[in-house]
Amino acid sequence: MSLLYPSPLDSSEQQIRLLSLESTDPTPAWKLHTVTLEPNLHFAALSYVWGDKSHTTNISVNNTLIPVTTNLAAALQHVHRYWSYEFPTKDPSTFRIWIDFLCIDQSNTLERSSQVLLMPKVYTSAALVLGWLGDHGPDNNHELKLATLAAKVLGDAFRSRKWDPEKLSSDLSWLSENAALIQAPVCDKLWNGLRFLGSLPYWNRIWILQENVLARTVLYISPNAMIEKSTLMSVCLMVSQALGLEFERRDVQKPEAVPDHIWFKFRPPESTEFSEIREIVRFWTAATVYGERSDAGSVKERMEASLQISEFGGTLLASDERDHIYGLLGLNDLPIRVDYSQETKVRDVYVEYCRVVLDMLREMDKRSYIFLRDAGVGVFNNNEDLPSWAPNFPERATGEPTLIFGAKLRLVYLEPKIPFAS
Question: Minimal CA–CA distance to 20: which of 98, 73, 74, 78?
Answer without folding.
Answer: 98
